[in-house]
Design brief:
Strands 3, 4, 5, 6, 7, 8, 9, 10, 11 and 12 form a ten-stranded mixed beta sheet that branches. Strands 1-2 form a two-stranded antiparallel ribbon. Helix 1 runs antiparallel to helix 2 and helix 6 packs antiparallel against helix 7. By secondary structure, it is α+β, with helices and mostly antiparallel strands. The chain has two domains: 78 residues; 226 residues, Roll (Urate Oxidase). Helix content is 34%, strand content 33%. About 8% of the residues have low confidence.
């Protein structure tokens, strides 16, 4: 009778495990057991086997010994046992860096088309640039790095660009640009490498009358390339200015419309040219320069200066070009100006380039 009841309870516990105790009440009757019987017999029979009272009366988990495990623990591993060594090797985790994976980028490509530039763009990184007033200036740049890809290869390894950049430290110095270009050529075995670095550049400006100081931000960019052993370098500077329309001043009984203009200057030079010098050339070529902080006395002076010095967008690019022609180190330039017209629903644009 006891054996038969235990068999029923065993089947019942299988139901508990599969369906949960809520379902058991509907099944108890099939085995001739009430809920009280289940609580007293089933729990006592199965739970008591898993837990054993400790000396202080609390229950603790008792692990069932696995047959042969105790002997295996006591038995030392034979160093000459090849099967045991192989078993241990299978359980070790091999670091991912040591696993040889398939190199998809190095597969051959059958389209026979060379790629001029391939790489990464939009990478933000701290840099130091030369500052005419304070020796160096710390800023944050947006960087692009590229190499050429021969027609035989399917792709390039993008992670290597980041490796090259970080190999030069946590901060990039402008003086390191040539080293970075050479490192890319060597890392990728490339004939050409390219580096784009654009960043905000800050200058302290004094208001024209009160002398109040404020920070003005400008846009600067370095484009550098290494073609075999030759290094090419292009400097770009953008600055905003004020322009007052000469035609409006000439025909209006009073006043004249003016607007903010953006001037972009790109140069190649024999020697390094200061960013500040290009900004000064741009601002002196317009009706007036801009300021971040102006008091009323300053605003009056800026307004009157612009009125006394009207320039078209054509005048603006010509004024800048004349000053660049006179610069002894500038070998090539391109000047662009775009005025955000205040009385038109379009902009005015002009460009001049030295051939």
């Amino acid at each position: 009778m006891t054996t038969e009841r235990e068999g029923r309870i065993g089947k019942l516990m299988g139901v508990v495990i599969r369906s949960g105790t809520a379902h058991v009440k509907g099944v108890l009757g099939q085995y001739g057991l009430g809920s009280k019987t289940f609580c007293k017999i089933a729990v006592r029979c199965y739970v008591s086997k898993m837990f054993k009272p400790s000396e202080n009366g609390s229950a603790r988990l008792r692990r069932r010994p696995i047959k042969g495990l105790a002997k295996a623990r006591r038995k030392p591993i034979n160093q000459g046992n090849g099967s045991a060594e192989r078993s241990l090797k299978r359980t070790r985790h091999v670091p991912a860096a040591l696993v040889t994976l398939h190199d998809k980028q190095s597969e051959p490509d059958h389209r026979e088309l060379r790629i001029d530039k391939v790489g990464v763009r939009g990478l933000r990184f701290p840099i130091q640039v030369r500052d005419k007033a304070h020796a160096v200036q710390n800023t944050v740049a947006t960087i692009g790095m590229f190499v050429d890809l021969p027609k035989e290869f399917k792709g390039t390894h993008m992670s290597r660009f980041i490796e090259v950049l970080n190999a030069h430290g946590n901060v990039i110095h402008v003086e390191n640009i040539t080293d970075i270009l050479r490192a890319m050529q060597e890392k990728f075995r490339a004939a050409t490498s390219h580096l784009e670095i654009e960043f905000p550049y800050f200058m302290v400006k004094r208001a024209p009358v009160t002398g109040k100081e404020s920070m003005m931000d400008y846009f600067a960019r370095f484009d550098a390339a290494a073609c075999h052993k030759e290094i090419l370098f292009l400097l770009t500077v953008k600055a905003n200015v004020t322009t007052l329309c000469p035609c409006s001043k000439a025909i209006a009984a009073y006043g004249a419309h003016n607007q903010r203009g953006e001037v972009t200057v790109q140069i190649r030079s024999r020697k390094a040219v200061w960013i500040e010098d290009l900004i000064a050339i741009i601002e002196s070529s317009a009706s007036s320069e801009l300021y971040a902080l102006l008091k009323r006395q300053d605003e009056k002076a800026v307004t009157e200066r612009a009125y006394d010095n009207p320039v078209f967008v054509e005048d603006l690019v010509r004024n800048v070009a004349l000053k660049l022609n006179a610069h002894p180190d500038v070998t090539w330039y391109k000047v662009e100006a775009e005025n955000q017209e205040s009385i038109h629903n379009h902009n005015a644009y002009a460009c001049i380039e030295k051939c």
